[in-house]
Amino acid sequence: MSHPEEKLAELGLKLPEVAKPVAAYVPVVRTGNLVYTSGQLPLREGALIATGKNGDGVSAEVAVECAQQCALNALAAIKSEIGDLANITRIVKVVAFVASTPDFTGQPQIANGASELLGHVFAEAGRHARSAVGVPVLPLDAPVEVELIVEVA
To answer: Hey, is 28 helix, strand or coil?
Structure first.
């Protein structure tokens, strides 16, 4: 099996630096063989990819890209805790918060930006439980926020 970062490279992606928290929390916590990330925003090189709400100004394509970036940021935080993404034995759960207008119902498709990335990178170990939740607003007016729970060796 290819190393997870080789799989990312196949997609033209690489892990970013760990995003700095925007409030009083840490990006990642390990307890036993589980690692929990804080909610990750779609920050790329210190700036949000987009702002606003799905259903009002943020296209599905941009929102999916945001979800993918959130997952990359979460993986970077996990790597900072465990040293090597190859130590991930299972993606357990993905929670995607999608800033949406009241009539927007495409949250699952937006969350696929994170889920499909994790499936490509971790294959069978990337299959996970998931929640995709519509919310009225997210920090910094981000359109998407994603958190992960992973099992490690």
So the answer is: strand
